[in-house]
Amino acid sequence: MKKKILFVINNLKGGGAERVLVNILNNFPFEEADVDLLLFWKDGLFLNEITDEVKIKNIFNTIPKNDLLFLLERIILRMILLFPALIYFFKLKTEYDLEVSFLEGLPAVFIAKSPVKQSKKFAWIHTNVVHNATRNFRMEDAAYNRMDKIIFVSDEIKEFFMKKHPRIPQSLLTTLYNPVDTNQVIQQSSEPCPVRFDDTNFNIVSMGRLSFSKGFDRLINVADKLVNGKGLNDLKFYILGAGELETELQNLIRDKRLSSHVILLGFTRNPFPYLVQAKLFFLSSRFEGFPMALLESKILAIPSVSASCSGVSEAIKDAFDGFIVSNESDLKFIDEAANMIYSLYNGDELNKIKKNLADEDKYNCNIYKIYQCLLSV
């Protein structure tokens, strides 16, 4: 008999966890399970990419552009969490074998309070819960203590989780790296790119949500040191992503007189035609869970410079297929990253790294390990 599985996430707006979920759902062995996806808000650029095999259900429609209305809906959602059986009765109407919270916070609380007593309950953790602390620690701690399994995208964020939630038995914790489809990355990198880089420039690509955790303000300060401080006028940083700090970052770029050197390109479903044109990929994050973009850069043989945050040392080997710089403080990161990029700009280390990447076995996480975990309940 086919299993019945429910995934829960806030929405499908552009982000790493959302992209991973789409990949897992679209390749799911549907001959073995019926899959539902519950969205708190039926919104996001990935919404149209979900296979028709998945039944999408939602509590609210698109995320309101009005901040007050959005706040009101969040308050209503928190009230719903007091009586989640209403959503199961009116929206879901299914007795599930497995319920999966695919994001930290409210999805985990929702699953933990499920009225389906016989179902197994899994939580997926994509972030460093110490650095990305929430205001609802007690509620989330209680939720995680009700889970049958907690899945982490890297060993490092599992270690941080254990420090934050020491009461949870370690036997419930497991690491499953995010799946990357090597062939798909290579195939998508050959698609037409809306922006053609000038290959006489030293082009650097970064990607991610325009949020504090991704550290793009630090990237701009690195660019300032290199362009205005060291005179590297052919240096170009291209940032792929959207988010709440866009206006603030644009203002910082203007204030530093870097409008010709740091370019915000917005969110794109397919970043690989941009990435494949770069001489370097740059990860400026303050916090990460498991940096998928480093793996995707490796697949395309693009060297990387990365802050030393969670999961990075599991994705690249320092000075072999990329470079890792200190993340001890913003100032130290900016200094070390600027010095590293300046050294790569003037030396031949990039060619050595590219050769290592070309010779290295391509990362190809077996997505079926994930399905084996989910279907073993």
Automatic annotation (TrEMBL):
Domain Glycosyltransferase subfamily 4-like N-terminal: 15-183
The keyword Glycoprotein is assigned to this record: no
InterPro entries: Glyco_trans_1, Glyco_trans_4-like_N
Domain (Glycosyl transferase family) ranges: 197-336
Keywords tagged on the record: Membrane, Transferase, Transmembrane, Transmembrane helix
Superkingdom of the organism of origin: Bacteria
Recorded GO MF terms: glycosyltransferase activity
TM spans (from-to): 68-90
Protein name: Glycosyltransferase
Organism placement in taxonomy: Bacteria, Pseudomonadati, Thermodesulfobacteriota, Desulfuromonadia, Geobacterales
